[in-house]
Amino acid sequence: MSLYGMLRTSVSGMTAQSNLLGTVSDNIANAGTTGYKRADTEFSSLLLETGGTEYQSGSVNTDVRYAITQQGALDYTSSSTDLAIQGGGFFLVNDPSGQTQLTRAGSFQVDASTGNLVNSAGLTLMGYDVSKGDPSVVLNGTAGLVPINLQNTKLAATPSTEGTFAANLPSNAPVATAPVAGANVAGASFTEKSSLVAYDNLGNAVTLDLYLTKTAANPDTWQLAVYDQAGAPATGTFPYASGPLSTQTLTFDASGKLASGDSISLAVPNGATLTLDLSGMSQLAAPYTPFTASVNGNAPSAISDFSIAKDGTVYATDANGRKSAIYRIPLATVASPDRLEPLTGNAYSTTLESGAIQVGFPNEGGAGTLLSGATEQSNVDMASELTRMIVAQRDYTANSKVFQTGTELLDVLMNLKR
Question: pLDDT grade, residue 132 (50/70/90)?
Fold first, then answer.
């Protein structure tokens, strides 16, 4: 073996061990970094063609790899915007230049200047706006993604469009005398009365008066008449300023079940068309008893809190305790995560070896489960890193001794020439 080859091999070995010490140093420094994935250095030998009488020394090839697929332990926090993934997915984030990247670092907080959710590296969490319905998801791209903004979110007024009203009507109630409530004349008679609150297009509350009047027997027939309470007379019950908004005839069979008239539709003043489901109505020998009375819609209200569900849906909670879905957080997967290219800020970009991204949602397609109020810790094991550091230091020292010996032999050779 030539002295030159021996020196070259020693330098190559020292360089390889230096790279190993560099990855160990990074791992130890980032042992407490959220979402950090451990770097490792793999070596392979590079052999040169050797003759029968002389050995040609080669060198060492170095390959740095990252344990991206290895799950880190979870650290539970008190912040609902801290997010962790259990599984193979990645958050889709944008850097300040608008480039989309992947990350597992989910320590997100609201940026004071923009209101967007950003992590400690300044990367903005991206998601789909679902406040107006289900999003159109591009499975192999990021089209349609918007920054998740919790500062400028306001709940708009939602007009009432559907509801449910169910009650038991007394079967032994007498038939009312004409005129009945649906006629809207002074002295009109009715059997029972209830009220519901609905909302118009601006979020104003509209109180609806529901009059239930038994109009016939065998078969038992009732009339439901709905009025806008704003038009009620100052004294007495009738007449209202206008109306009724709608009427419906309810017919019951011999067993007290509703035979016809299972819904009623009416136009809410300054609002949308409201359809009430009446299929739960009954007529039995019992007092008038309302069972269900619900109407959708809402008045505008200030946001008091946010929450993130396991399926990635971001909910805004108003001062009245009502939740509304505003965003949904997707997760991206790639075929070979360990082949992703690491970037500054514990982020990654795709490569030819990693494959392109596949976009989905938590709990779908192997993307993993999303947890709110937790972050994924670094997957660095300090004991292993310290052991690797000791071994690398020993190997580095051994290679330096070989280099030193080669230098001494070269000096002897030069002295022989003199």
Answer: confident
> Both tokens of residue 367?
């993307």
Q: Which of 327, 404, 26 is nearest to 150 (CA)?
A: 327
Burial (0-12, 13-18, 19+ Cβ within 10 Å), 67: middle
Query: What pLDDT, on a 0 to 100 scale, did the predictor assign at position 29?
Result: 86
Instruction: Tell which phi-psi region holds residue 187, choosing left (phi > 0), alpha (psi between -120 and 50) or beta.
Output: left
Strand locations in 217-330 (E): 221-228, 246-252, 258-260, 263-267, 273-277, 282-284, 289-295, 303-308, 313-318, 323-328
Cα gap 34→26, rounded to integer Å: 14
Angle at 25 between CA 24 and CA 30, to 5 degrees: 100
End-to-end C-alpha distance for the chain, whole angstroms: 23
Instruction: Give burial (CB, 10 Å; 0-12/13-18/19+) of 194.
Output: middle
3-state secondary structure 285-303: CCCCEEEEEEECCECCCCE
Tokens standing for residue 50: 């050797």
pLDDT at 99: 94
